[in-house]
Every structure is written in structure tokens, then in C-alpha cells.
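Many introductory courses stop at the sequence. We go one step further.
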Amino acid sequence: MEKSIKNKVLLFLLLVFSSSAIAQQASLTIENRSIRSMTVKIMKGSSGKGTLFTTITISANSKETVHFSQTGYYFTKTKAVLNGKDPVYQKGQPFKVVNDETGYSVLTLTFVIKESTIPQVTGGQQISKSEFDQN
């Protein structure tokens, strides 16, 4: 009977450690500090077109978090829309995500658009609609 209790305790500890290892993933929180809603494509790669990792939609003045299971380089492509205004398209600088035995990244990107006759976008590079649409 004592062996059965030890096995149950061992199984319990194994489940606790494995669930905590799964819970510790790299993450990226994207903050939208504008009155526009945004579609953000997270692309895997450090240059060129990259490959689509995921797409998220972020409401005005909101934030969303994305989790990563692999180390690698990523960048964002963003479309920001507001009724009555032209969409703003932007490509961000590459960033490195770490998720391995050495640790994991916890990153935050903040998007700010100051509305005026010509919207002023902070950081990144303006891109065309067709470049945004490419996955």
C-alpha cells in the first residue's frame, strides 16, 4: 500500500512540474494606444517577406497577447483602420523571441498613431496594402 501512495505522490509532482513548464512560454503583448482598430500579422523571419505565424485583431485602446513555443526572429505587419480615414500600413523591425532551456522572452510592443491630416505613426516603416496582404 505504501508503494501505491509513493507512486501517486510522484505522479502528482510530475504533473505539477510539467504543467508549470508548459505555462512558461515566451509572450508578446501588443498594446494599441490609438483610436484605430488594428490587424497585426506576426511574421516569422528577420528579413524579406517572412512567413505568417499568426494574425490578431486589436480594438482601439486595447491590448492582446500572443504566445510562442519556439525561439526565433519575428516582425509585425500592421493595418490600422478608422472610419472615414485611409488605412495605415506599417512593417516593424525584427525582434528575437527566446523560448528554450535558457529562459523565455516576455515582450511588449506599443503602437501609437497621432491623428492629424496625415496620421503620424511612431516607429516602423510605412508599407503598401499589397505588401501587408502578402503572407
